[in-house]
Amino acid sequence: MGPYYVTIALVFLFSLTAQYTSVRDTVETVRLKDEPVLTKLLLFFTAAVLIFVAGCRYRVGADYGAYYNGLELFGSRLLESIRKFDEPGLPVLASIIKNFTSDGAWLVFICSLITIGLFLLTIYQNDSSYLMGSLLFVLVGIWDGTFNGVRQYFAAAILFAGHRFIYERKLWQYLVTVFLATCFHISAVVMVVLFFLLRNRITLRNVILLAVGTALVSANYDTVFSFVGFLKDSDFTELNTYATTTVNILRILVAAAPAILCLIIYWKKELTREQAFYINALIIHGAAMIAASNSAYLARIGIYTSPFLPIAIPKLVRLKNKRVEFLFRVGIILLYAVYWYVGISGSESMRYFRWIWQR
User: How many CB atoms lie within 10 A of CB 252?
Assistant: First the structure.
């Protein structure tokens, strides 16, 4: 666990210093590109630490072997995957890497570089709470999640990078984003619905409709599994044991808590369009995880919705009383730290960290 603790400490140090050198909190028109050079450099160091540790791991994560040993296999599938549109993204990437090296560790590193880089760049572009956003990116489980579902997190990073197309109501640009994401994982196609859900007003009617939809999904897993089988063009029965494994109740509570809290705090209050957008993201994330609570396989939908948390939570925890806001933020970070520790320490494939030079 030592490398994890050092990583979090460095992320805290760099992002905290970036927060103090930032001018975005005092000048509303300033964007990430307008920040002082020192701030941008510190954010680069934050991202570099997370990318380096993730990219230089060795056999950490349940799926690591498939990618470490699969450079040749992925590359050999290039033409077939394009012809059948069978998630050609990774074969394209592997084919490029094969021209320079036969070491599968480079495929792992490049995937970490692009995935984590996209996630963090999107977080930093859309909110100035660099410290809280960086820590939540780790503690919510997104960073170490990329150690496992490599292709699905790659797809999620692409979708997340294009999520502002939803806010700006640019349907065609968002559809192109979804298409690029499906090149890495076909399940990304279901995220087309976000374009319509995230733009809804937060009303009692819409909350009830979402609750009904959540209940319908929970009661009709067979239909959902049939749809998944159709997307993957395969018989879903082989995944039956994993598919029907109940999700840890802690994951469900952690997913639902921010949505419930925001509904309590902001109900019937006048919201900006951006606040409503990100509260919707929290509500949809919580609803999706509740709907998938009896299927570990379907709960992977959270891979696509959880990246909103590092932007949404800091944006919505802005209070007039700064002392109360500070305590609120510290409390949230501590609770997520406990959640992260329970998850990592309880995983055999994650708990014992090894570096690539230890192979």
Answer: 18
Instruction: Give the whole-number percent of the chain exceeding pLDDT 70.
Output: 85
**Residue 210 is encoded by which pair of tokens?**
């979402």
Tokens of 256: 């639902």
Those residues with Cβ within 8 angstroms of residue 353's Cβ, 6 or more apart along the chain or in another chain: 1, 2, 3, 4, 57, 60
For residue 355, what are the CA distances in angstroms to 40, 111, 113, 144?
Answer: 28, 16, 16, 15
Phi/psi zone of residue 169: left (φ > 0), alpha (ψ -120 to 50 degrees), beta? Answer: left
Residue 136 CA to residue 159 CA, distance in Å, equals 19
Locate tokens 């999620």: which residue? 156
Task: Kindly report, residue by residue over 146-196, the tens digit of the pLDDT.
Answer: 998 899 999 999 999 999 999 999 999 999 999 999 999 988 998 898 888
Cross-strand pairs, 337: none
Q: Over the stretch 96-148, which tens digit does the pLDDT of each residue have? A: 998 898 888 999 999 999 999 999 999 999 988 999 999 999 999 999 999 98
Produce one character per residue of 45-75: b if its CB has 16 or more CB atoms within 10 Å, e if not: bbbbbbbbbbbbbeebbebbeebbebbeebb
The residue assigned the tokens 């305590």 is: 327
Q: What is the pTM of this model?
A: 0.90
Identity of the highest mean pLDDT range in 29-38, 151-160, 323-332: 151-160
